[in-house]
Write a structure and sequence with these properties.
Length: 445
C-alpha cells in the first residue's frame, strides 16, 4: 500500500477493505497506514477469490486486490477491472507450532505434547519455552530442526494452573504460529434438590467437568422438583391420562435440570398429565445417539403438553412429552425407580451426550493461538487443536509482476468515475421519463 500510495497525492481519497475481517476505511491516504496499524490479524477458512468476485459484482468498481498469494485462487475468471497485486516472499523462514495437546494424567499431572515444523529450506535452531500462569517459565529447551522437518516434543507438568502457553522464541516472518495457549475452562457446578434420586446425584461423579454445588447460589445448573399441576385439566391430552394435584410433601412427579435463574414459564404454568400410553415417539436428537429409549420400559410417567412445549420432545406421544430438552434445560417426567434406564449402559451415554451439547468445554483446556477473542486460526476438536494450514504457515505466496504505475491508478480512478457518471445520467433520464409520463395526459387534453 505504501508503494502504490507514493504515486497518489496526499489528499487523494482511498477506500480500503481488510479481508477476512471485512473492516473498511475511507479517507485520506495519510491516515490509511494509521488505520491499518489498529487492525488485528485473523484467520478463518475462507475463499479470497470468491470474495473478490462478489465484491466486484456488488459494486462494479475497479480496484486492486492486494494479497500475499498464499490462498488458493484462480485468475481465469477475474474481471478486467480487478488487478491482483501479490506481495509474497521468495522463500519462507517460518518455524511454527502446528499442533499441541494437553492430556490429564494421574492426580495433578498433565502431559504436554506439541509438534513444531520448520517450513524453511535451512536448518533452524532456537528456544522452545513452556510458560505457566502469568507467563512464568516452566521449562526451556533448545532444539534444532532440519529443512522441511517436524520436531515432536513432550513434557509432563505438575499443577499447571488455568493458563499455559508454549512459545517458539525465534522471530520469523510469520509470527501467528509462534505461540500457542491453552486455557482451562471452569467446571460446571450442579446443585441437587432435596429428595433427589441417587441415580441423578451420581451423574457428577462419572461425567468429567461436573462438580456438586454446596448451595443453589453457587451453582451453574440446578435440579428442580416438579410437584404441582396448575390450571388446565390435562385428562384430554394423553390416552388414559388424568390430571393430578399433589399434596405439599408428596414425592416429585417430574424433574427439571436447568441453568440457574431461567424463567421456564411454559413448564411452571403447565399441568403434568399421567401418561400410560407406551407407544412412544422417539426423537432423532443427537442427545439420544446410542441411547435406545425403546428399551427403557417406563412406568408412571408424567408429561408436558405438546401444545405449550418450548423445546424438543425426546420421548412423547401425540399430546405430551415425558422427556424434553431445550437450549439449557431438561425435563424428565418419570422417577428412576420406575424405569430400567439407570441400570442400562446407555444411562451414562445419555448424560455425556447432554453435557457435551450444553457445555462442551467444561473442565477442559481450550486451545488457541492467542488470548484475543478475534484470533481463531486452526482446526479444533474437544481434545486437541491442529494449527497446520499449509498455505498460511508456509507463507511464501506469490511475487507480483504488477508494478505500481500512475497509468494503472489513473485508469482505476477513471473507471469508477465513469461508472458513477453513467449512474447519474441514468437517474436523470429516469426522472425525465417519469415527468413525461405524468404530464402526458394533460398534453393530450
Amino acid at each position: 500500500i505504501e508503494r502504490w500510495g507514493k504515486l497518489l497525492h496526499s489528499e487523494d481519497h482511498l477506500h480500503l477493505v481488510l479481508y477476512p475481517q471485512l473492516s473498511e476505511y475511507q479517507g485520506k491516504q495519510l491516515d490509511a497506514q494509521q488505520w491499518i496499524q489498529t487492525q488485528k490479524p485473523m484467520y478463518i477458512a475462507s475463499n479470497f477469490s470468491a470474495y473478490v468476485q462478489d465484491y466486484w459484482q456488488n459494486t462494479n468498481k475497479a480496484f486492486l486486490a492486494i494479497t500475499d498469494g498464499t490462498e488458493e485462487s484462480s485468475e481465469d475468471t477475474v474481471p478486467s477491472d480487478v488487478h491482483y497485486v501479490y506481495c509474497g516472499i521468495p522463500a519462507t523462514d517460518n518455524v511454527g507450532i502446528v499442533a499441541w495437546q494437553i492430556t490429564p494424567l494421574n492426580g495433578s499431572q498433565n502431559r504436554i505434547f506439541a509438534v513444531i515444523q520448520n517450513f524453511s529450506n535451512d536448518i533452524v535452531s532456537g528456544m522452545l519455552e513452556l510458560q505457566g500462569q502469568n507467563h512464568a517459565p516452566i521449562i526451556s529447551h533448545n532444539i534444532s530442526i532440519g529443512p522441511k522437518q517436524r520436531y515432536r516434543w513432550s513434557h509432563i507438568v505438575d499443577n499447571i494452573g488455568n493458563t499455559i502457553s508454549l512459545e517458539w522464541q525465534k522471530p520469523d516472518n510469520f509470527l501467528l504460529d509462534n505461540k500457542v495457549y491453552a486455557i482451562l475452562a471452569p467446571q460446571i457446578r450442579v446443585w441437587h434438590a432435596e429428595k433427589m434420586p441417587a441415580e441423578f446425584i451420581s451423574i457428577c461423579r462419572y461425567i468429567p467437568g461436573l462438580q456438586d454445588a454446596s448451595n443453589p447460589n453457587e451453582a451453574d445448573y440446578v435440579w428442580i422438583p416438579l410437584q404441582e399441576s396448575i390450571g388446565v385439566d390435562m385428562a384430554s391430552l394423553a390416552p388414559q391420562g388424568h390430571s393430578h394435584t399433589i399434596q405439599p410433601h408428596s414425592e416429585p412427579l417430574a424433574w427439571l435440570l436447568s441453568k440457574k435463574n431461567l424463567d421456564h414459564w411454559f413448564i411452571q404454568s403447565a399441568n403434568l398429565a399421567c401418561v400410560s400410553d407406551s407407544s412412544w415417539i422417539i426423537s432423532g436428537h443427537p442427545i439420544l445417539k446410542a441411547v435406545h429409549p425403546s428399551f427403557w420400559q417406563i412406568q408412571n410417567a408424567y408429561g408436558l403438553p405438546m401444545e405449550s412445549l418450548q423445546g424438543e420432545a425426546l420421548i412423547s406421544n401425540a399430546s405430551a412429552a415425558i422427556l424434553a430438552v431445550g437450549k439449557d434445560w431438561l425435563f424428565i417426567g418419570f422417577a428412576p425407580q420406575h424405569t430400567q434406564w439407570p441400570t442400562l449402559p446407555c444411562f451414562p451415554i445419555f448424560w455425556r451426550n447432554l453435557w457435551d451439547t450444553w457445555e462442551p468445554q467444561r473442565g477442559r483446556f481450550v486451545y488457541d493461538l492467542s488470548t484475543e477473542a478475534n484470533q481463531k486460526p486452526g482446526l479444533y476438536t474437544s481434545q486437541a487443536v491442529n494449527f497446520l494450514i499449509p498455505q498460511e504457515s508456509a507463507n511464501a505466496g506469490k511475487l507480483s509482476l504488477l508494478e505500481p504505475t500512475e497509468q494503472l491508478l489513473h485508469s482505476i480512478s477513471q473507471a469508477n468515475t465513469l461508472f458513477h457518471n453513467i449512474q447519474r445520467i441514468l437517474v436523470c433520464l429516469g426522472i425525465v421519463g417519469l415527468a413525461i409520463l405524468w404530464i402526458w395526459p394533460f398534453m393530450r387534453v
